[in-house]
Amino acid sequence: MAASPGDELMERDTNTHLAKRFSNARFTWYNVGLGACGRTNVPSDFVVALNGVQWANRAHCGKRITISARGKTTQATIVDLCPGCPNNGLDLSSGLFKFFAPLDVGVITGSWNFN
Fold first, then answer.
1. Please, what are the averages of pLDDT over each run of 10 residues along the chain (115 residues)?
2. What's the half-sphere exposure (Cβ side, CA atoms, 13 Å) at 50?
3. Euclidean distance between CA atoms 47 and 76, whole angstroms
4. Domains of the chain with CATH codes
5. CA of 115: how far to CAs of 7, 31, 33, in Å?
6. Across-strand partners of 67?
7. By the 8 A CB rule, do 111 and 23 touch?
């Protein structure tokens, strides 16, 4: 089956996103379970749900990212979709969010990039 021009554009956009660091990103937390990538996680897993703008029809499922916020840095895996997250925003598992801040803070900002 031949690729359509839209497929080429999506691949180019996906590759452009891979090289970029996303600053001033909004991070929230959510209760994990079975994610849109088909994987089941527990709260202590360092996993994230990716915003809908960058979702690219599951193209980033399983990809590792590096997240920095509040003077700390760690790595996580993309396992879910966050349709309500803003562009560049992530929903973090509760365990991952607690690495950066108490859950009652609710929202933090930071930066992230694909590994």
1. 37 56 97 97 98 96 98 98 97 98 98 97
2. 24
3. 5
4. 5-114 (2.40.40.10)
5. 23, 24, 24
6. 74, 112
7. yes
Name the residue among 107, 96, 105, 33 with its Cα closest to residue 67. 96
| Alpha helices (H) in the chain, listed in sequence order | 5-19, 94-100
Assign 3-state DSSP to the chain and report helix, strand, coil percentages, each to 5.
Answer: 20, 40, 40
> What residues contact residue 65 under an 8 Å CB cut-off, 6+ apart?
48, 75, 76, 77, 78, 112, 113, 114, 115
Q: How many other CB atoms sit within 10 Å of the CB of residue 90?
A: 28
Structure tokens, 109: 């900002």
- pTM of this structure: 0.84
Burial of 10 (0-12, 13-18, 19+ CB in 10 A): middle
Residue position matching structure tokens 């992530």: 90
